[in-house]
Amino acid sequence: MVDWCRENLSNLKMADTGKGVHFMQEDSPHIIGRELAMWLEGLH
User: Fold this and answer.
1) What is the radius of gyration, based on Cα positions, of the chain?
2) 17 touches 35 (CB < 8 A)
3) Cα-based torsion angle of the residue sequence 34, 35, 40, 44 in order, rounded to the nearest 10 degrees
4) What are the distances in angstroms from CA 21 to CA 5, 13, 15, 38?
5) How far apart are CA 16 and CA 3, in angstroms?
6) What is the DSSP string of 1-44?
7) What percent of the chain has pLDDT over 90?
8) What is the distance between the alpha carbons of residues 8 and 29, in angstroms, rounded to a whole number?
9) FRET partner for 6 with CA separation of 20 to 30 A, picked from 12, 16, 17, 25?
10) Quick one: how far is CA 39 from the chain centroid?
11) Residue 22's pLDDT is what?
12) Other C-beta atoms within 10 Å of 22: how many?
């Protein structure tokens, strides 16, 4: 599914959040927050 998204979604922004176990937001909160902030900044 990831490969399909990369090939077919032209505005897709992907980020490596590292290895996650179950709850990604608990495993990598700072990485996710930083990536979201950069994405949001790019909308302006």
Assistant:
1) 12
2) yes
3) 100
4) 22, 22, 17, 24
5) 14
6) -HHHHHHH-TT---------SS-HHHHSHHHHHHHHHHHHHTT-
7) 43
8) 28
9) 25
10) 9
11) 84
12) 6
**Measured between alpha carbons, how far is 43 from 3 in angstroms, rounded to an integer?**
24
- Residue from 4, 2, 7 nearest 15 by CA: 2
Task: Look at the alpha carbons of 28, 30, 33, 10 in this order and tell me if their dihedral is positive or negative.
Answer: negative
HSE-CB for 16 with a 13 A CA cutoff: 2
Closest to 3 in 3D by CA, of 39, 14, 24: 14
Global model pTM greater than 0.85:
no
Q: How confident is the model at residue 43 (pLDDT cuts 50, 70, 90)?
A: confident
Q: Which amino acid is at 12?
A: L
